[in-house]
Amino acid sequence: MNELDQKINTHFPGLVVRKDLVKTVKGNAIVPSYVLEYLLGQYCATSDEPTIQTGIETVKEILAKHYVHRNEAGLVRSNIKEKGRYKVIDKISVDLNDKKDVYQAQFSNLGLKEVLVDSGTVKKHPKLLVGGVWCIADLEYEFTENKSASPWILSTLKPIQLSHFDFDGYVEARKQFTTDEWIDLLVQSIGFNPEMFGKRSKLTQLVRLIPFCERNYNLIELGPKGTGKSHIYSEFSPHGILISGGEVTVPKLFVNNSSGKIGLVGYWDCVAFDEFAGKQKRVDKALVDIMKNYMANKSFSRGVETLGAEASMVFVGNTQHTVPYMLKHSDLFCELPDKFYDSAFLDRIHYYIPGWEIDIIRGEMFSSGYGFVVDYLAEILRSLRNHDYSDRYKEHFSLSSDISTRDRDGINKTFSGLMKILFPQGGATKEEVEELLRFAIEGRKRVKDQLMRIDSTYGNVRFTYQDTDGRAKPVTTLEEEEYPGYYHKTIAEGEDGEILEAAQPDSPHSPSEPLAPAEPVLKEKHLTFQENQKGLSFDTLLGPYLKGATAITVTDPYIRLFYQVRNFMEFLETVVKHKAPDEEVSVHLVTTEDEFKGEQQKDNFEKMKESAGSVGVNFTWEFDGTGTIHARHIVTDHGWKISLDRGLDIFQHYEMNDAFTFANRLQQYRPCKAFEVTFIKHKREAEGE
After folding, report:
1. What's the pLDDT score for residue 255?
2. What is the Cα–Cα distance from 91 to 159, expressed in whole angstroms?
3. Per-residue pLDDT tens for 528-550?
4. Where is 344: in which H helix or E strand?
5. Which among 263, 337, 339 is positioned nearest to 300, based on CA atoms?
6. Any idea what DSSP says for residue 518?
7. Does one domain contain both 128 and 260?
8. How many domains does the chain have?
9. Neighbours of 385 (CB within 10 A)
10. Which segments of 98-145 are extended strands (E)?
11. Same domain membership, residue 673 and residue 537
């Protein structure tokens, strides 16, 4: 166990579980994670290895004995008949049979339909009436001569959810963790390994939790397939329900006019629509209209009366195109069905998660560390719905006056949700508050910027905020930084806009003249890059400054692990690309020796030396014996010093073993870490001393 895992076990004894155990016990049972973690929480919520092992065996035994597989339903039914009574784990839903005036349960895997339930059980667990609940139930079989009576009786039922928890204890324990430790604990609780994610990516994952802790929060996430968009809504909390986009109707979601029964929004904290994107989807116009009203006013009407509910709405869907393609040809909502591609509907969305920034899920991204038993975290988030943290930034910052009420609501709700998740105890520093506020503004700005493309009646909004000195600080979205040419183009400009973009107005050449490639003028400069930014490579960033050098010295203490050595190899490739074939370049590396794998490190360097020698690069290296080098920079013999605060380690984790992914082959397709680089004229060399 690492330090964080020990700390987690110390402060949350009995409430955390090792996340890789879920896979161990799941086998071929088609149950949500919170059901398995509920059982693991009963038997394995400890760091004691022998107890964990016996706990795993117990949970496996319980699942083998009591979880009903559909193909074994007949055998289980026979068991119940022979024994008279038997415990099962299944998803149970209940209906009122008004002809017989009784409640009847339906067991989804067991395939039983008319099981008698007493009304006390239904009053106690009203969610049984909508969508169904996973439960541990005792079933009895009593044969009767009466043909119309069902022999099956539900004697006891226990929903698989925590029965109680201590909120004050949770807040107290939170105080023992730093902000970064807490974020890592939450990321592990969702099931991911925090080391595989940068800060921005972790926050993006945590935004997915806001619908569980913030009432009436409307969230959309569109992105490529396989990034785990719907996972949290189906597996994570017993208070959320995931429905396929095509399956939803007005009676199911809001209210059934004939029976007067309220739909899903009345019982669940979070209703998520899966597969929401797709131009071809058929959508009921009436549903869109009721949803618009509900998302804006938290209410919907049926006939004469108006009903209110507090369910948050989440829409997740896949995109077919890259971000620059969408920005060039339409907008970031272009995949939605026509009826939902409606500015009034989209304006009610509080946050747009940029799904294209999230990595496609790979095996190495799952955590084997400790995290909360998910139904414990689900209960915490649920209890936080009663709090409001949306004004916590107001002592330090204020939003610009031209941000509309609806934009303000979106920003406030997102900020409140993130504060609840990260700082339930309060005590966030001004810098931490600012980071969350910027993040909240960015997600709402992404919605608004696209709305301005769709509907020209929306006025231009400057998304800025002021600190107490009154200085305005603008916020941009990451794709705005990456593709400024496409981002600020309204679609109305159409073809002309694109043609104008293609021809540079300040070019002295007429379009028919071939352009001679001009030598770029190299200047001293300082560049800052955001986390998850793409489109960068050593060639574009460093190449022009390395061209013409005959000796280059790289100082970077961290060229030790395989991926770091591979980065250095890619740096050598850049040197080779920018040198003339008839020239030789010396590259000298100053780094530190890896205390565990020093031999492997030397072996890698030897291979690189041999390989580089054959293409005119003389590669040498030395290990710094003092262990004091912290600076990371590149110095050339023709007058440049390039200072990199992260050295060459500027890319996020990517799949190194897969030769068929572009992130592996081409650096510009890898998301970056946040880093800064400074190009400085190196005086001594420049003066030829």
Report:
1. 84
2. 9
3. 999 999 999 999 999 999 999 99
4. helix 343-346
5. 263
6. P
7. no
8. 4
9. 19
10. 102-107, 112-117, 133-141
11. yes
